[in-house]
């Protein structure tokens, strides 16, 4: 059974103002094929290919979330107050059964918004869709404040081909110190890429996460190139009580001078019951305000006036009824670590699905997962020591480092899918686990 997000009622007044709530205008991840995909485009569309049978994907995790009643997080965090926690090894009981590479893939769950944007002629209308897409990347954090993804091993990769959504996604851990993950997603309608690195600090009762890096989206049909940086995340009640996540800061989305969007993720206040709010405006190339956006980052976004007429742009997909028993995963997340039919013969051995400690956690073997996590991390440490002994630097297989606008960034070499066609047998990939 599927239920709606718990706080959608807070937006009902805005919904009532909409003269016709047309679902065709709203992006819901309903696992259905979006009809506005490019017609006649060639290329691979998943295991079945375009026009073939869609891949069968699992609908439930194999095991519910383990009980953490006897676990004391304070024993770990008390020695690291004010420090960057990205460099601190955490026990597997704090993890969810996904890697940070797979979490990056979750950011394209609502790619239908980019498909819709590709078929709009007005650049400001396209910006509205792209802005909603940027906001939608945060929805998973609302349902999963208690656990973190696995830190990927250097050289770890992840791919997902979604023939129903029309995209091919791949990611690689390109650096260990500092930890940097790079991803690239391509579709007939858009290209999405970023290199993600975070810094985090524990302040006693809360933990702040500071993302570093630029998110890029191009829409070739219109020559668009959108860029933005992520806002700050904060996990509250880390040591006790009901944990919850706040997102706050300014997000500016640009598109080569054609138009821009300035969004404010409002920081929650102790003096107000309002949480999770986002609002902002779209501006044309002359800097004139064109339209207003508002909503919440975990439920829905609207375009129009908050006290007048407004149109829905994006609404979060409903959650499975028992999601609280399964790490807070939605249907998209449930499928990320699954093996689809015919997939095993095509994946490289470095794919996150093969990571043993993560798989053991997913299957409920938490006592076996802990020593396996230490074993995998020890392999990484030994490999690093050997490179240092030989005076060799690490070179990622599928991404390369570039300097853009005076800053370091990682971009795809464009070689992943060609090597996939040969089963990666023409590459010497590292042994990670």
Automatic annotation (TrEMBL):
Biased composition, class Basic and acidic residues, residue ranges: 37-48
GO cellular component entries: cytosol; perinuclear endoplasmic reticulum; plasma membrane
An annotated GO BP: intermembrane lipid transfer
Region (Disordered): 37-63
Entries under InterPro entries matching the protein: OSBP_sf (IPR037239), Oxysterol-bd (IPR000648), Oxysterol-bd_CS (IPR018494)
Ribosomal protein among keywords: no
Record organism: Geodia barretti (Barrett's horny sponge)
Gene3D superfamilies attached to this UniProt entry: 2.40.160.120, 3.30.70.3490
Name recorded for this polypeptide: Oxysterol-binding protein
Keywords noted in UniProt: Lipid transport, Lipid-binding, Transport
Entry keyword annotation includes Transport: yes
Family indicated by similarity: Belongs to the OSBP family.
Molecular functions per Gene Ontology: cholesterol binding
Entry-linked Pfam families: Oxysterol_BP
């Amino acid at each position: 059974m599927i239920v709606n997000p718990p706080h959608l009622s807070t937006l009902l007044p805005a919904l009532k103002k909409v003269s016709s709530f047309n679902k065709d205008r709203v992006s819901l991840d309903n696992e259905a094929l979006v009809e506005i995909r490019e017609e006649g485009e060639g290329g691979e569309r998943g295991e079945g290919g375009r026009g073939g049978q869609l891949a069968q994907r699992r609908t439930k995790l194999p095991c519910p979330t383990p009980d953490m009643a006897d676990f004391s997080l304070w024993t770990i965090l008390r020695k690291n107050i004010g420090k960057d926690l990205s460099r601190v090894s955490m026990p597997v009981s704090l993890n969810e059964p996904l890697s940070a590479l797979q979490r990056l893939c979750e950011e394209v769950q609502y790619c239908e918004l980019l498909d819709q944007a590709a078929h709009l002629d007005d650049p400001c209308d396209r910006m509205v869709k792209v802005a909603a897409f940027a906001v939608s990347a945060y929805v998973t954090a609302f349902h999963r404040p208690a656990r973190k993804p696995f830190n990927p091993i250097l050289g770890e990769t992840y791919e997902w081909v979604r023939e129903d959504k029309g995209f091919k996604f791949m990611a690689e851990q390109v650096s260990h110190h500092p930890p940097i993950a790079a991803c690239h997603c391509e579709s007939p309608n858009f290209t999405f890429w970023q290199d993600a690195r975070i810094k985090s600090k524990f302040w006693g009762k809360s933990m702040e996460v500071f993302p570093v890096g630029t998110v890029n989206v191009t829409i070739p049909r219109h020559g668009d190139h959108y860029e933005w940086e992520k806002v700050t995340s904060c996990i509250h009640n880390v040591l006790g009580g009901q944990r919850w996540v706040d997102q706050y800061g300014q997000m500016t989305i640009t598109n080569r001078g054609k138009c821009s969007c300035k969004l404010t993720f409002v920081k929650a206040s102790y003096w107000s019951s309002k949480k999770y709010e986002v609002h902002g405006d779209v501006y044309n190339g002359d800097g004139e305000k064109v339209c207003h956006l508002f909503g919440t980052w975990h439920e829905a976004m609207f375009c129009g006036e908050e006290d007048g007429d407004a149109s829905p742009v994006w609404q979060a997909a409903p959650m499975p009824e028992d999601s609280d028993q399964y790490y807070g995963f939605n249907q998209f997340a449930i499928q990320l670590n699954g093996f689809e039919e015919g997939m095993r013969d095509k994946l490289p051995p470095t794919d996150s699905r093969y990571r043993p400690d993560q798989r053991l956690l997913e299957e409920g073997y938490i006592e076996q997962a802990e020593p396996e996590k230490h074993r995998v991390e020890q392999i990484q440490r030994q490999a690093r020591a050997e490179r240092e002994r030989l005076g060799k630097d690490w070179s990622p297989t599928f991404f390369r480092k570039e300097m853009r606008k005076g800053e370091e960034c990682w971009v795809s070499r464009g070689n992943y899918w060609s090597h996939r066609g040969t089963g990666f047998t023409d590459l010497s990939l590292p042994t990670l686990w």
